[in-house]
Specification:
The protein is α/β, with parallel strands linked by helices. It is about 20% helix and about 20% strand. It binds zinc ion (ZN).
Length: about 450
């Protein structure tokens, strides 16, 4: 909900500064599912204008979103599915912390259901919210190469001398899991991979615990006035951290209410720019209904909900009043009700991929199923390509039996490669055997018609 948005966002600024370095993590409740506010504070210490940047990007995204909603300028449906390579760093000190491949795969599967709106629990979305539930069109794939180009399976196990990464009984934590020299694993190139660290976040005899946290996007290369010193491409802390007991579906170690693997869905939402749906007021009791999450189609809410209470409506609105959206992954009532992101949350996450985390999906953009995509589309990426890398060519077409020829010419017009490829299949060309320079790539259909001609740069 977004009336008087700027007033509310101003409040958010003040709220965060008041919070300062107080330890929020265990104030009212033994489990603070997520360390989002703590992460924000850390960023603001390094980059005081961070919230101004965040508010500005929300403003621009909202404007762009409204444009897609206007009937006059209805854009053609955005059917791109973004693939994001993921690496799970399993940092373990005991055998039980070294969770199984099966649990990791079930977590990945859950992310892929939730971000494609294929999760069967959409059935529990109340009718009032059903039409708002969105397919984000993001697919998470296990990284099949490490940053050096060596084959990998996307699960990186590190035997650590550290028994926990919590630093006190209240649920505070260090980020040493992100550092090889401190008993963790330094991030794989954070502009190319979504790094997910799985580790122990429990402190002995704890009364508070953080189950997960994520770094929101920082710095957009296109916005000079908001240049930050911590761009994604260089920020080694960028990624998601999850307590090993809540990873995967029905993790046998998971506490009650954390068995559905939704914490990862929530944290990846933050990683892709989403705020909590209640807006993170510093004092929810007095300010909760005045602080918004910056998203139009999530109803105003005062504070986090830990339980699925269909009757709760913490901020009644004069117009278009709706109950709290406990079905939303960005609330805290995860097991039992969380089942959706909204349309504008979907737009926001894709906006972040296009403007902030641009290195993540570029190598792996694919088009959605042929039923959704009516025309033949050729994707060639990355361009420029590096001399020791893979060039990918995909021809998406609703003629699933179609075949195409791909021809590569050097700058003198000499043919250096010809390949036949099938529709809707990814073809990779290893570039190591070609010299650095300018090339032209031609794609023809089976009748010999040129459907794509692209200038290609091969760099060192
Ligand atoms: Zn959160």
């Amino acid at each position: 909900m977004m009336h008087s948005q700027f007033f509310k966002i101003l409040f958010l600024n003040i709220a965060i500064f008041i919070v300062g370095s107080n330890n929020l993590l265990a104030q009212n409740t033994p489990v603070e599912i997520c360390g989002y506010q703590h992460e924000l504070e850390k960023i603001i210490q390094k980059q005081p204008n961070y919230l101004a940047l965040q508010n500005e990007w929300y403003r621009r995204a909202n404007e762009a979103y409204l444009e897609t909603q206007s009937t006059k300028r209805k854009i053609t449906a955005d059917t791109l599915v973004y693939e994001i390579p993921v690496v799970f760093h399993v940092i373990y000190n005991t055998n039980s912390q070294n969770i199984s491949d099966a649990l990791i795969l079930s977590q990945l599967n859950e992310l892929n259901l939730d971000y494609r709106k294929l999760n069967p629990d959409t059935s529990r979305i109340r009718p009032v919210f059903k039409s708002l539930a969105a397919d984000i069109k993001i697919r998470f794939i296990l990284a099949n190469k490490d940053p050096n180009g060596n084959p990998a399976n996307g699960i990186n196990r590190i035997n650590s001398s550290r028994s926990t990464f919590a630093t006190n009984i209240y649920g505070s934590y260090s980020e040493d899991m992100k550092s090889t020299s401190n008993g963790g694993q330094t991030a794989w190139n954070p502009s190319r991979y979504l790094n997910i660290w799985v580790c122990n976040m429990e402190y002995p005899s704890y009364i508070g615990i953080t189950y997960g946290f994520a770094t929101p996007p920082t710095g957009s290369p296109n916005w000079a006035q908001f240049q930050s010193s911590t761009k994604d491409s260089t920020d080694p802390k960028s990624g998601v951290v999850l307590h090993y007991k809540i990873v995967g579906k029905n993790n046998p170690l998971a506490p009650t209410n954390y068995k559905e693997a939704n914490t990862a869905t929530h944290e990846v939402g933050h990683y892709l720019g989403l705020r909590h749906i209640w807006g993170d007021a510093a004092n929810p009791f007095t300010q909760g209904c005045n602080v918004d999450d910056g998203i139009f189609d999530t109803p105003n809410a005062k504070d986090k909900n830990y339980t699925c209470n269909a009757n709760i409506n913490s901020c009644p609105d004069a117009v278009d009043d709706k109950p709290d959206m406990t079905e939303n992954y960005m609330d805290y009532a995860l097991d039992g009700c969380a089942a959706m992101f909204t349309r504008e949350q979907a737009f926001m996450m894709r906006y972040v991929l296009n403007n902030f985390r641009t290195g993540l999906p570029i190598r792996t953009i694919v088009y959605d199923t042929t039923t959704e995509y009516k025309e033949t589309v050729v994707s060639i990426y990355p361009n420029p390509t590096k001399a020791n890398d893979y060039l990918t060519v995909v021809v998406n077409s609703n003629n699933t039996l179609g075949s195409f020829s791909v021809t590569l010419f050097d700058n003198n017009g000499k043919e250096v490669l010809q390949k036949r490829i099938q529709a809707n299949q990814k073809t990779e060309v290893f570039t190591a055997s070609y010299s650095v320079g300018v090339y032209y790539l031609l794609v023809k259909d089976s009748n010999g018609n040129i459907i794509k001609k692209e200038k290609l740069i091969l760099n060192l």
